[in-house]
Predict the structure.
Amino acid sequence: MKILSIVIPAYNEEKFITDLLEKVLSIDTESVGYKKEIIVVDDCSKDSTFELASKFDSVKVFKLEVNQGKGAAVQYGVAKSEGDYILVQDADLEYNPDDYIPMLKALGPDTSVYGSRVLRSKELSKGTFFKSKHPDQELGPWLAGRILSIWAFFFFQTWISDTLTAYKIYPGKLLKSFNVKTNGFETDHELTAKLIKSGIKIIEVPIDYIPRSVEEGKKIKSSDFFIAVWTFLRFRFVN
């Protein structure tokens, strides 16, 4: 049976981490042929995230001594992983781990699977103008996502409806072979660029999504949009 490594970068997520891990542990990935390896990387949290995660005996928990950013935490977890495939899971409950199953079912040779919030919103919309926008999602993040999809298509001739999704399944060996040069949220876009340039087919699967606000702990900022734009441009020409 193949192994799915679930890497969870976490920073000050004591409010969500226990419920999240209980949910992740409850998902029967073995029913579709994958054992779970769960890895939490605490990015030097100032709260009790590390202690709460450490209560789960079946979860591997690591703590970075200095806060380095989501990308760095993901890279650390990837280095510690043993899975045939690697899925990155945010430490909150914006995304539903039930979606692991359809994403795993969509995997094939030389593929990576992205969970698309946009495709799910389009399924649920009823002819509204903003078909791809979740009703609780703010206009700014939605618009940024639309622009980034067009921007990525311009440089890589590959249409990805939701480049900003936090649910992505990567082939483990390939991901470990990449020389990742970024450390923040933009690491997602660097990896997308490198996947496409490696000839990997990106398959999108509709997923559920419950947006959270800055007040609820959301950490991505408007400046990250401009960093993402630069990251796609940079890694179109740099390996």
